[in-house]
Each structure stands twice: as structure tokens, then as C-alpha cells.
Fold these 2 entries.
Entry 1:
Amino acid sequence: MKRRSLRLSVLIFLAVLLSFFAVNVQAQSSSILAKIGGENSLVGIEKVEKVAVSGGNLAISNQPRDGKALEVLARQRYAAGEFAEAAKYWQQAVSAFEVKGDWLNQAIALSNLSLTYQQFGRWEEANSAIALSRSLLPEESKVKSLVELKAIGQILDIQSNGQWEQGQVNLALKTAQQATKIYVKLKDNLGWKRSLIAQVKTLQALGLYQQACQAIIPVIESNNPEKFAIPSQDCQQFMTKKLAEIKGSVKTPSNPTLKNIKITGARLLGDVWRQLGYLNESQQLLEEVDRVVTQPEYPQEKALVLLSLGDTYQALGNRNKFLSESNYKEYYQNAINSYKKSINVATNNSFVKVQAQLNLLSLLVDDRIGSAVDLKVSQKLRTDILSQLNKLPQNHGKIYAEVSLMNSLVRLKQEEIKIASNVSNSSSVNSEQLSNYCLQNSSIVAESLSGNKSSVSEREIVELGAKAIELARDLGDLRATAYALGNLGTVYEKHQHWLEAQKCTEQALLLSQNVSLNAPDLAYLWQWQLGRIRWRGEAKDVQGAIAAYTAAFNTLQSVRNDLVPISREGQFDFRDKIEPVYRELVDLLLKGENPSQENLKQARNVIEALQVAELDNFFRDACVVVNKSEEIDKIADKYDPTAAVIHAIILEDRLAIILKLPGKISLEYRQTYQPNTLVKETIKNLQNNLIEKGNTSEALPESEKLYQWLIEPVESLVESAKNVETLVFILDRPLQVIPMGALHDKRSNKYLMQKDYALALVPGLQLLEPKPWNQVKSSKLKVLLGGVDKPQTLEGQDFTKIEKLVEELDGIGKFVETTKRFLNEDFTLTNLQQELALANIPILHIKTHGQFSSDPEKTFIVAFGSLLKSQDLDKLIKKGNKKDVRAIELLVLSACKTAKGDDRAVLGLSGVAIRAGARSTVSSLWVAEDAANTEIIVRFYKELRQPGMTRAKALHIAQQAYFKTGSEPYFWAPYIIVGNWL
């Protein structure tokens, strides 16, 4: 899981940052403390293996020593990684300062003693030392000198680190924020920047990536160093304006003293950009930092940068594979190379080395990346990681490392079985007897594990999970305990040890719902897992499974806003971690030939919630808040008693169809048994043929299959209703790339568009303030026209000349009053915003190149000299939606297309329309010839003037009219209407 990787990565960074305090925390003047930006401050001593320290007080030499001299010896030992010796000297220094009554230096020595104890996981002593340290100093409001205040700030930094390493994330953030306030009071620029870096780790762990980005901006910026304020600009604004400046600042910093801080800040900013989904910018920045950081000068930072760069390459590979782009393997290989370099640079027995090894192993054993698993390399890596793990300090980072290794070994074991049996996709089930480490009387796991065996055993896998659980419980880290328990339950589930899986999962769920933890982002995972165990386990308890799945669904719905900040690199894991909860619940609800009305309604509501979640995931914002909305069923009955609503859902083994007929309360249900792989393959083939001129004969067989699967099962029901004139489709996302009018009925030799039904696509079960077109046009209509017909090259993409632009706009002007035209050089974001803000314009018509994609960074329309991305489109249309200005009733996007190979590209179209508040949108799914586009669009506006006309009927008539002169669907089928069809 991404969060696990993030936690361990942050721990690595913190080891570097906090090692700095043991060497530099001292009660000296701020001029001396300002030297803390030197070479060793950020790339100094890293965490190394645990060093055993005997219990009780360490012996203090009979030879009296000066506290300052002991402090120097302690720092030297700490810097050398000799933490046991360092602890001894810190204790002697504490005693020496106490004898002299030097409480300030005694407090500082105690804080450094706490930091030293943290290195080998002696948390009771570490917590006692930091508490005593803080008690020796006055309250912040009562300090008598700036030196005391600075000491409090630095002690709080160390306390925050300890809280973080014990899994107390919220408390760690609160303590770090206290330290930051102190540095602001002191006007200590270096301390302030350092404390902001420390805050970033907790903000990332809490999923607050936007805040993390804002916190890191002042660390990177050189301007206004005395302001001591977090900027209000969001991350995207900052990135757009300052990427080049940041890269230059890292390369040649204006203040050499802050060079280390800037390098670390730039690396963390690259991480945050990746987590926010700005993958290309993350790549550019991290590659620049990698060029700047040399191994001899910054060995530890070099390893960290390579680790971050590997994570970004992997995220790019995930994204491009998700979007069916051919170069995804190249990014995966770059990730593998970066991880290998990080491993080679990193110090042995360090968290950075282990994290790089874990990330590399996870990638090597993942057969989804398109490369064969190299067992020899993977097994050697497994052995190396086990050796390193045994030497790491006992903190929550180690818990997540053990869970990560456990999950990778599950996949490695599966590959071993496949190769051994020489049968692809063979079962990984094994007769090996396994202990249930989730039972109260489970045996204690060995202190260390070795990977000497040539192959992975199931026992080795589950014992890794058991060790993680044991450590998490020892640390009192509830979240890590729940995480480890749940993941061990997953392992048992995969091996079909159902009793063990259920016990682990129930314990993980109980902890996740504990009032002290309240972790819904974990709870839904274990509710979902419990549902799978009940459904697929020996009991085959369908009702119990539905109850567990419903609980998972309700948890997801209740924390919608909280789940949104999950990093957008996780957007491409959406299908794996969130979508299955919805789909599998629907599958359970629709079991059998005749599901209950209650189940049918619940299934529709669940899929509706999934599509909203997809839009949230698309924008990384809980944006789809439909105020003043009405349900589709009520809209149809109230405004259009001739409309039938068809809901199509792709399940694992069938296509489910739920039909709402005019005037009927009860729902009809039909299903076509076809595997989802075949359904999706048919959709893909049909889409590829439709967008190619002259491929009608190739498209026809696939078109007929979809008609047979989707339309035929309910066709007799629709025909028997007699009064149906409009078919309103609520389609599963992959189906949305196909215009329903292009489906062909083999029996009648007609396309659905040729029949007597107007067609519309709605994004869900609700519409925003739907108004019939007669009500809209009762007031004076105006249309804002714009477009670009000149050829341009923007962001490496060539956009050809668009023909018929002026002819199309002139044709529209014959039927609807137009305002200003914004053509070519005048077609800019600023001009459109100004016009929409000033005038009541219910129709916005744009003819220019554009693309819709399930990746918001690849959703755009072409303005003059720039690409207007999804966020720009959002701002553009919303600019006219002030309280005193009417919303956009109709948005027409002529000459746009959906991204090829992206089966969820319409997500970009419907997402922009819904988020912007446009009531309905007419757009093309691919770009046909300009003459055909212009003829259909002009006829559409002409028909809109007719009495009693709806938007869907106007488009239907326009397409039927063109069909008389050109029957090839390449020309007439691209246009669809999304949203309000009335």
C-alpha cells in the first residue's frame, strides 16, 4: 500500500534530520546555532542497527569530567553510530550539569539522551528522558532569554520525532507546530525551515498533501526570508509559476548556508507533487535534484533522491499502464534502475537501503508490470532484506517494512509455484500447517528470521506478519497493529485459511473502529475483507457478506471528504482498492434471476456512488456536490413521461441491466451472461473501428454484439410500454466511450439512432436543477461562440487546422442570438472569463481541438497559445455561475475527442461538465470531418427552436437528417448529449 511506503520513506528522511540535533543542540548564541546549515546538518549520521544497552543506570566514571567535554564525546559517538557509548556519555553529561546546577544544559543533554534511545527503540527510557528534559525548562510564556526559547524549540523537535516513530502521528504534528511557532518568534529562518520540513512528514501521513506542499514552499523559496508565513497559494499555482525557478534555486542556491535545507526541501516537494498527481513535474524536479546532489558530498541525500525518483518513475508507469500507453514498461525499468542505484549508495543497515530494497522487490515480483519475474534476483533480494531488517531499530517504520516484505513474498511464492508446476495461474494453496497468530494462545515468533532457504515458505510469510503485529503491540501503536493484523488476514485469505483470515480481520476491524484510533480508511478495508471471507469461504454466507460489504460501502460514503486527499498516484490503484467494494456489493445484491426491488434500488444507488467516487478521484476533491438536484426517475415522470431509464452495469461474469419504464414504480431486471473481459474487449474493438473512417464493416460485428447484450434483453419491455420516445442511459464507465446510437440491430438492420428513440447519457441518478428546454428558451437566448482554427504546436503536440469554423458559427447565428466571437488570438482564458462574468449567457459553444481523458492532466481544450486543462475549464465555466448570473444551460464542445485506448475517457467530459455546473453538454467523442460536424451542429441549433423540443430530440433529428446523406457512423455518431436531456 502507498501509505506503508510513505511512512517508511518519511522515517528515512527523519533519521537524517534528527541526527542533526544530537550533534548541534546546545545552549549557545544564535550566531553559533546558525551554522547548523553546514555540510553534515542534513546528510549527516543516519540511523544504524540497534545497539544493545543494559538496563538500569549506566556506570558513570569515577573520574570527574566537565559536562561540556562529555557532551563533545557523546556527539562524537553519536556521529559514529555508536549509540550505546553515546548514551553513556549523555547520561554522564546530565549528571555533571545537574551537580553544577546548570539546568539548561542538563535539559538539552536529556533531550539528546532521548534522541539516542530512540535510535535503538528503547521507548520507555526515551519518553522519560524527554519528559524530564521539558520539565526542567520554564513554560514558553515564562522564558527569560532567547537561548531558553531556542532550547525549548529544539527539544520539541526531538519530542515530535519520538512521537512520530511510535505512531502518534497527530500528536507529533501538534508538537512540531509548537516548535515552528517558537522559531517564528525567534525570527530564526534556519530553525523555522527545518521545523517546516519536520512537519511535512506528518502532513503526508495524514493525507494532507496540499498542506504539506504549502509548508514546504518557504523552504525552497529564496525571496522574503523574514516573512515567516505559509503561503496561501495552492500547490498547482506555485508549481505552474515557479518550477523553473525552483530547479534553478536548487542548482545554484543564493545562500550556501541553506543549500542542504533547499536540497532536502526540493526532494520532499518532488514527493508531494507525486502524491498530488503532478507526476511530470515531480519527475523534472527530482531529476534536477539528482543531477545536483553528488554522492561523495551528499551520500545519504543521494540515496534518498534516487529512492524518491524511483517512486515517481513507478507512479508514471502505473499511470501510463492505466491509460494504455505503450511506454509504461520504460518507466518501470527506470524505477528499477533508480532503486538499484539507491541501494548501492545507501549505507548498510539503514532505513533508506531497506526501503529501496523493499520497493525494488515489490516491483520485481509484480507480474502486472509486464516483465517476467526473475526468481534468482528476487530470492537474493529477499535474503538481503531479511538480514537488514533484523538490525533495524524497533519503531513503527520497521512494522511497515515487515508488512511490505510479507506482501511481496506472497507474490514471490505464487511465482515459485507457477514455475515449479509449469502451469500458468496455478493455485498457490498449500497443505502446509500454519499457526494462527491472531489467536490469544498463539506461539511467540522467533526474534529474527533468516532467508537462507532457497524458496519462500508460507510459514516464513505469516511469521513476518506476526512479528509486525508483536512489535506494533509493544509500541502501543494501534494503527500499525490494525494494519499488520489486516494484512496478515489478507495472507491467510489468499491461502484459503478461512478461520485464521476471519480472526485476524475481525481483530483488525475492531481496532480500526476503536474510539482512540478511529481509522475509517483502514476500517473499510477490513469490512470489505470480512465480506470476501464470508462470501468465498467455506460458509458461503451471502447475507453475511452483504452485511459486511454494506458496512464497507457506508464507511466509504461517510468519509468521502477524508478519503479524497489520498494521493493521486493512488488514483491508478482506485480499481484495486476502492472500486471493487462497490462492484462486488452490486454483484452480491443482484445474485439470481429475480433480485428483490430493494436490492435493485440499492444496487443502482451503489453504482451511482461509485461514479461520484470516480469523479472525486479524478479531481482529487469532493467536488460533486449536487445541490438542488432531483432524481432521474422523478424527473422522467414529472417532465418527460416518454423517457425510459436504462442502467447498465458490467459485473465479473455478466452485464446487468436495470430498467425504469415511464409511470412505473417497480424496476425491471435483465442480465446477459458474458465475462467482463469479453465485454470490455468488444467495447475496445468497436471504439477503435468507429473512430476510423471506412471501418464500418469491421465495426458492425462488435456493434451487433453490444446491441444483443445491452438492448435486446429489455427491448420487448420498452416496446410494450408504447409511449417511450427517449432512452436515457446510465452507463458503466467503460460503456460510455460508445455512442449508443451506433449500436446495430442485426434483425432489423438498423442502428439504434435510426429507430424512434432520442438518446441521452446521464452521469448518475441525479441531475442539477433540470429545466425543460421550453422554459430555458422562454427568455431571450444568447450563445457565446469561440474557437481556434489555426494550426498550433503546444506542449509537444501538433494540432491541425480546423476547417469550417467560421461557417459553423455563422450557421448557428442564423438560429440563436450570439454575443461576441472569440476567434484564434482572442480565444483565451482571460477573455472568456471576463465575458462570462459580465453577461447572462446560457449557451457556450466552443469549436477547437480538445481531448478528454481519465487523467485530468490529459483533459484539455486548445486555446490560442495554450492548453486549457481540466482545472482551467472548471474555473472558466464557473466564472459565470455567480448568484446574479444564470448557470450554463448548454455547453457544446465541437471537434473534441476522447483519449484513444482510455476506456474511461468520458470521465473527463462528464467530470468537467458536472463540476462546472453545466446543465447539459453536447460533445463529440471523436473528430470526424469538419463538414459533417458543422452540418449536424447547425441543424441541432435549428431544431432547438421548434415548439416542444428537447435537447435529446434535437440532436437525434440532426443525426437522422445527416444519415440520409451519409450512413457511415464515423460521420454522424460522434455526438452525444450528457446530462439534462429535456
Entry 2:
Amino acid sequence: MPNIPPPFSAAYAPDDADIAARLLPSVHLGPPQEARIDRTATRLIEAIRKRDDRLGGVEDMLREFALSTKEGLALMVLAEALLRVPDARTADQFIEDKLGEGDFIHHETKSTAFLVNASAWALGLSARVIQPGETPDGTIGRLVKRLGAPAVRTATRQAMRLMGNHFVLGETIAQALERARPRSGERQRYSFDMLGEGARTATDARRYFDAYASAILTIGKAAGSHPLPDRPGISVKLSALHPRFEAISRDGVMAELVPQLLDLAQRAKVHDLNFTVDAEEADRLELSLDVIAATLADPSLAGWDGFGLAIQAYQKRAGDVIDYVDALAGAHDRKLMVRLVKGAYWDTEIKRAQERGLDGYPVFTRKAMTDLNYVACAQKLLSLRPRIFPQFATHNALSVATVLELAGANGGFEFQRLHGMGEALYEQLAKDHPDIAYRTYAPVGSHRDLLAYLVRRLLENGANSSFVAQASDYRVPVTALLQRPADAIVRPQHAAHPKIPLPGDLFAPERRNSRGVEFGARAALDRLLTEVKAETIDLKPIADATPDQANAAVAAARAGFAAWSRTPAATRAAALEQAAHLLENRAPHFIALLQREGGKTLDDALSELREATDFCRYYAAQGRKLFGNDVAMPGPTGESNALAMRGRGVFVAISPWNFPLAIFLGQVTAALMAGNSVVAKPAEQTPRIAVEAVRLLHEAGIPASALHLVTGDGRIGAPLAAHPDIGGIVFTGSTEVARSINRALAAKDGPIVPLIAETGGINTMIADATALPEQVADDVVTSAFRSAGQRCSALRLLFVQEDVADRMIEMIAGAARELKIGDPSDVATHIGPVIDVEAKQRLDAHIARMKREARLHFAGTAPEGCFVAPHIFELGDAGQLTEEVFGPILHVVRYRAENLERVLQAIERTGYGLTLGIHSRIDDTIEAIVDRVQIGNIYVNRNMIGAVVGVQPFGGNGLSGTGPKAGGPHYLARFATEQTVTINTAAAGGNAALLAGDE
């Protein structure tokens, strides 16, 4: 039996300084070697700058339309979306919108390249034709009447296609092979990449599998008789072969994806091709390596040296991955091919780590550290020859020169470049080193798919710090391009970017970000699961309070108000911060409680815990500012004027079952921070969570006299709301109950007290033809079905432009079909139960009605119990949906592009105004919608749930609530009264300060 290594394991986000301390001493070479590197790199850079490619390449595009210019950014967005827009009206709006963002009319081309000049000419022509503001609608200018809108559209589309045609080898694998065929005696190595986004549906995954299988056969037939590594290859993306390629779905991925990858690898082996598994995001690395290891272990692949994978040097675990791959190769007695890249999704990795509240970043935050790690990884790979065949993918002349020096004269490696890039560099390299092989990584697919790929390449290489961008800029001296990454870092403490805070410090110095767990890190996920499973949760019924007990709680809170309101704001804030600390330390307990009483999935439970923690810290920070010191007001000399805020008295907090910890604590901590005493009434379905939350707040320093809990259903909530001694009510729940509370308050004699209400809504999303279907599918499925649709912000009604509706609805339904419904304690579960039998009955009744009145696109299958599967219904008219349906049911309405105003009117007619999603690449459309609708939270080109405290303050208008927004800077003030104190400081004999002042 081979000595198979255990599953890959390495620290997910280690400290940059620790890595730098290890790498910095290892990459220094002797003076003769460094001098040779300088000479080689200089020669390559000069070749790049001397090249005058009459056609042009990415370097020319970057020089002409830099991403730091408006023209460059507009061109990027235009390229990403234009060719997928099927209808003329939307295409015209989109072109006008993007050309209006840059000054294409006055753009003087600096390049002699045909590609750049043709694109600039076409875009300039279009910009002259489409002049916003020349007609009442600001759409098509006067010239269009002479030339016609189709001419404008055609010119711009041709510019996009011209760009695309240069960077794609062929729209089909046959076309790509034809273009790749050598026209002279020299042989060229290719690796073909089938373009497209990751699979969202099983149908997508099967289509990608068939495309890979067909490509392998076609490439194999044309591959000739040369041995590896001098043979063509294909790159395979695991996320294209499985619609739920994610860590929590590991068991399903291993059972379903490994056989498919093995099948493709066996086909590649038949033709002795290079078969490379492409790199994925950091949170998929361990899962990717599990799939690769399981595939590689199959005996049918023995004797084949073509299996390989890509490793990203910007990932801090890259060196560990190389060690693991080498151990796999040794265990199976195989030779493996390893493509070393720097990485293409850096900004996404940074954002994800910040959003997830991780301890650090899985990627380096400084480019110099990535370059340093690339050299270290190159050294390691070269030392593992011949068992590992290194493939160095880079367009950086210094990196190429460094690898050449490190490799020596032993061979056994190759370079790689992207088709359409790095041509001058590698032509010079081939002249100087004819024995060194390089492979072209060539995208294959439709222009529609290509342009999204091109945009990623532009982003990757178009930044000011990119070598590709700098190498083509004559203003950057060659010596600057020769600076070694180690010299840019100098010391370990400079390894991290000084302007990119760690995720935990994202909101510093005001507060800490809540701590999350990366589910893609096996050790962290396993530890959390073990701790949650070990928690003992007491779910014995909690008795409802009696009316007498409720009255006693109000009386006790009233008695405790004076002392608590006089407690310094800093002391109150410290108690809230201690509560946040306790919540994080007891995360497994509260997650277990949320799962077992609230029916939360692991992901939802963790998110809610983090939100509750953020509320505590945010209101503490806001409270210090609002209640810490009186505000001095301007006024005449001899007088002081100060404005102070203080508590109102007893606040009743009535919270819902769908966020039994986060909303409960958000309401209570806000009221407490403002100096009020609180009587909290949680939902009758989730009292245990409230009991434990109150206990934690008491432990954190909130006096028992200031915070009281009353459990029970609406029969106990109603008398609390009507109680004559309360100073205010904060409520989250249904519009119907909010109305009854409002009436009860209005009917009372005595002080007029505030009602802070956040209710629900018929939340909508609008998707036009410029939107990326895969992104729409992701965001719709998340917004409509996560948490079983039991969120106030959840998507209920999707308006989709009819020109793209069939494809989008099909993809959304296919993605919904992949969701797992069941036990929320199972980490692989995406959708847990609805809250109770009553909720299920209401939803089942609505589904039955919709099956009679609407067109059914998808109906999932639910297990026994309080489960409701996702459903998708298409309505003939938005007016068919007359109330909020609080569950995993999506309603879809098609609209014509010219009827967007009718869509907005339909949204207004609902009377609700909580959340709205917009998916469009047309800024004018987005701005017009935002300006038009009265909706509290609008999300553009993303999902519409999961508002983050202090980042996306949450709350609606109209039937959706009163405001102010929870988790926002105006919230605490509504819990307080204001007091102005004016003192005549000149009353005792005059204004001494004024009289004593110097001139």
C-alpha cells in the first residue's frame, strides 16, 4: 500500500510577517547571479517597449485605456456585458451610459496598433452619435436620426468583438486548433481553457463536462506524436463541473465530482495530454485538493505524467500545497505537472475575508509579498524535478529572468503565457534561449463568455502596480522594474499592506468587527461543529408570564430607571462591549441554541451571532458619542448653551422569532445604551434564546433592575404595549401587529410615546438584460430561499426583462434544485424548517393557490415535518401578490424594457418599502430607480439580505416601518429625549471672560 498523505491541512490565514521572516533570507542570490538576472530582465523589458505590434495586444489596450481613467473603466464594464444584451433598446441605453462616462470623443490614440485604433475609432464614433441631453429623454442624439441607432450599436459591438477576437483563440475548439497550428517549423505548446462561469445547475455542469470531453477528444486527435511535456493540454475548472462546489457540501462533491473528474482524466490519458485542474478561490482550496487526491489515487491513471494542477502564489498556503502535491506524487509514484500562477481574484479574497470577520487574510496584501512567494515557490518546484514538472505562468520579465537563473541548465520546466499577452517578452526569450519551452494558455469560447474573462485579465494586469502596466509605460525607468520583491519588503514587519486593516480591525478604532469562522478551513469548521455538538441545551418549556407578572416587570423597570439613566454612558457602553465579548466566547452555545430552538442552519446561526455581537459594539460606540458629553451650542457671549440626551423611561422591546438573538439584543442594547430601563418580550416560539441573552447581559454588567424579561404570546404583549407607565416601544414583526400597537398607543391618555417599528415587505428585485445571469441566479437564490425565506428582507417578487427571462428563470430554478433541505444541524443543509406548523400551513395554502392562478416553474421536495421546499411561480401581473408571503416562495413577473416605469409603479402600489435589489450594468437605470422609489435598503448587483450593522443600516418606509434604521447612526437618538440647558454666565456682575480677553 502506498503511503498516502493525510488530507491537506495548513493555517488558513497565517501572519504575513511570520512568512516574510521565513522567506526573506531564502531568496537572496550571489552578486553574479543577480547581475545575470538584471541583464536578462532588462533585455526582455526593452523588447516589450520596442515592439510595435500592428495588430496590438492587451499591453497596448492597457496603455491606451488605463484602468485609472474613466475611459478605461467604462470600456471594461462595456466589454463585460454588451455582447450578452439581446435587445436593441437596452443595448443602446447601455452603450450611451458607458460612453458618457469617458471622453471618447476627444480621446487621442497614442498607439499605432490596429486593434487599439479601431476600438478607439468605433467608440469615439459612438460617443459622437450618442450625446446625452440632446433629446428630451437624453438617449439618442440628433445624429442618430441621420445615421440610425443600429449603426451606433453595430460600431460599438464590433469594437468589443474586435477586442475579443484578439484574446480568444477560437469560438470552438476546432477553430482554436486551426489557429494554433504552427505556420513555420517551430512547435508551440498550448493549454486550452474552455470559457464560462462556474456551474449553477446540474444542466450547466453536464454541459461543461460534455464540452471538456469533446475538447479532449478533438485536441487528442490533433496532438501529433511528440511525448509529454511537448503536447497540448486542457484546463478544467472544478466549479464548472459541480453546481455546489463548496466546503459544506463536501460529501456530495466527493461522491458526484470525483467520478466526473476521473472520467475526464482517463480520457486525457488516452491521448497523453497535459490535464490541468485550475485554481479556485481560497475557501475552495482544501476541497479542491481532496477531489484531486481522490482522483489521483485511482490506479487507472498510473503511468501517465500529464495530470497537473495550478497553484496560486498570492495564497499564503502555496508552499504547503507544493509540499502536499509532491507527497501525493511520491505516494502514487507519479510525475505531476504544476502550473505556478500569481492569482487573479485578489480583491475578491480581501473582501471575503473582511466580510467573514476572519483573523487574517488567506492571500498577501502586498504585491511584493506575492512576487517574493512566487520566487520561493519556484525554488521549491525546481528542487522537486523530475517528479514535479514546473510550469511558470508569468508575464513579468523579472520573474522570468529569476526562474531562468534558478533553473540552471537542467531543463525539466516550461513557461506559460496568456494568449494575446506577453508576446514580445516570449519572442525575445525564444530568440535568446531557443531550448526553453513556453506554453500559451488559450481561452476558447464565444465572445460573450470571453469578454467577462478579458475584464478579469484587465483588472489583474491593469492596476498601477502591475508589471504588465508598468512595463509598457516608458515613464517608468527600467531600474524600477528590476527592484527585487525582497528589497521592496525589506523587513518582516513591512510584509502587510499598511492601508489594508486586518478583518477584525475593519471598523477600528471605533469598534472591532465580529469574529467569524471560515467554513472552507477544515480545522476551523470541524472545531466549531465539535463544540456545537457538545453543548447541552435545555429546551424544557418556559412558562408564559401572567398579566400580574407583566405589570410587576414594568413597575420594577420604572423603579430601576433613575439609577440606570444616571449611570455614566461610558459604564453603559462598557457593559455592552463585555456582552459582545461574552457572546463570542460562548459562540458554540448560542449557535447550538439558535439551531435547536430557532431551526437555524450553521451558516445562519453564525451570521446571527455575529450580528448580535456587532449590535452590542456598535451601539456602545455610538452611545459614547451621543450620551458621553453634552454638546455645546453656539450663542452670544456671556451665556452657555448645552444640549444633552437622556433616557425616556421604560422601553418595551417586542422582538420576532426569525432573528431571536440578533434583533432581540439589538432592540434591548439600543434602549439600554440610551439610558432606558427595558422590559423585553420575545416571540413565544423562541423564549429560551431570550432567557439566555438576558442572563448574559446581566452578567456583563446590566443591572437586574434595568432589564426585565416577560415571556408569552401576543396576549401578554398587548397589555405591555398599552401600559400607562411605559416611555416607548420598539417592535419588529408584522405590519398588522404594528398597527395594533400604534392604535393602542394612540388610545392612551398621558404622554405621547414613540413607536419604533420595523415590519416586513413585498421585497422586489429588478434584473435587466445587461445583468450577468449567473450573478442574478446566485443572488436570487440567496435572497429568496436562504433561511427558508424567513427574513424581513427576503426577496418575494422578481421582475426580469422579458428578453432574457427564459434563460434567467431556468438558471434560477436549476440552482434552487441543488439546495439541500432538511436537518439544520447537518452542515450540508441549505434550508432548514419553517418556524412552526401554523407557518407551514399558511405557506402550503399560498402554494396551492398559486398552482391554480400562476405558472409553476419549480417546486422542490420537502421532507416530513415543518419543511417547505422552494417554489417559483410566474405571475401574469404583480398585483396578484397582495401580501407578504413569509417563506421560500419566489414570484416572477416579466417586463418589457420600455415599461420599466410600470414596474416601479407596481412596486409603489404595494405600499411597502423595505428592500429592493437591482441587477444592471447601466448606471443611469440604477440611478433613476434609486431616485424614484421610497425604499429603505437598495442593493445593486448583489444579494439583498444580510444587512451589516453600521455598514448597511436597516429599516423601511411606508408599511415596512417607521424608522430610524437599526444599526445606523440615527437609531439611538429615537430612544432618548433631549434637554437644553441655558446658563447666563454673566449674571453675577458681568462677563469676566470677555472683559479679560486680549485684543
